[in-house]
Amino acid sequence: MDIKTSPLVQMASEAERSTRWWVSWIVAVALTFLGLIAGELSAQAMLGHPAATSPLHQVDEIFQFGMVAFLLFLWLHYKERRGFSSIGLRGANPLRKLTIGLLIGATMMSLGVLIPVAFGQYALGASEHAKLGMDAAVFLLPLLLIFILQGSTEELVLRGYMLQTAGQQVPASVAIIGTSMIFSAMHRDAEVIPLLNIALYALFACFMALRDGSLWQICGFHAGWNFFQGNIFGLPVSGHPEGTSLWNFGPASGSSDLWTGGAFGVEASLVGTILISILVVVSFLQLRKTQAERAISGS
């Protein structure tokens, strides 16, 4: 499969001083961890040390992921000499695409919770939160915006900069599988199912971004998936419990971690594996169709 015809990959050619693909991967990972550390220190200086159950705890992510995005902007501007939008923030109707992605992500996460509920694996009232129900409602919109920043920054780094730079220089399989493995490893979990599911999500994200030629829809999906998991259903997001949630679902008494994901959340469950695998297959078929249409229109 030739992904060089995707507008997402073609945007990388705007760099006046391009970076070798393997160097770009090292730089991207380094900028991510440097940004997260610097952002956390900045958050502590301004907010102190809010408890993990406090809504302010999620505000930390504004500093962390905002710093990652800022460092990436500096690299693109001063080293590669290209615009920040060239890593996938282009195309018509961005708000519409973001919203559609958010709704799809919310729907898939709802299935990831309600299917186990139907089989007695999740139960309401099985997790604890400082802000719950109507007490949490006033915080939900700001927390959604935070998850949009968080999810979008990860997409900008992985499916934006790393995928498009490699996609221009190496075979598609190396660019897609390599960035997916890095994304999974960056979540730093040694269990097999979470690693597999996060890698599968990354494959799906690559296929959607390459199909669309932009990142808007996958940014929305990422935000909707995480927001509904953590702040609507009250489950841990990649192992991180949120202190504010509309509902307080959690593993039911006698449930199996294989079906609930335990303390990691839906992404560590077999239900998650099934849902994400469906997304991978559908997005791959859509990408192949889109690439064939691009080949015909370009011939």
Which helices and strands, and how do they pair?
Elements: H1 7-10, H2 21-47, H3 55-80, H4 94-118, E1 122-124, E2 131-132, H5 134-169, H6 172-186, H7 192-212, H8 216-232, E3 244-245, E4 249-251, H9 257-260, H10 270-298
Rg, nearest Å: 19 Å
Whole-number tally of structural domains: 1
Query: What is the spatial order of strands in the main beta sheet?
Result: 1-4
Shape: globular
Strand content: under 5%
How helical, in percent, are the residues?
55-70%
Order of helices and strands: HHHHEEHHHHEEHH
Low-confidence stretches: none
Number of helices: 10
Mean pLDDT, nearest integer?
95
**How far from one another are the termini?**
16 Å
Number of strands: 4
- Largest sheet properties: 2 strands, antiparallel
What structural category arises from helix and sheet content? Answer: mainly alpha
What does this structure look like?
This protein has 299 residues and is mainly alpha-helical. The chain has ten helices and four strands; from the N terminus they run H-H-H-H-E-E-H-H-H-H-E-E-H-H. The chain has one domain. It has helices at residues 7-10, 21-47, 55-80, 94-118, 134-169, 172-186, 192-212, 216-232, 257-260, 270-298, and strands at 122-124, 131-132, 244-245, 249-251. The protein is globular, with a radius of gyration of 19 Å. The protein starts with 6 loop residues before the first helix and ends with a helix. The mean pLDDT is 95.
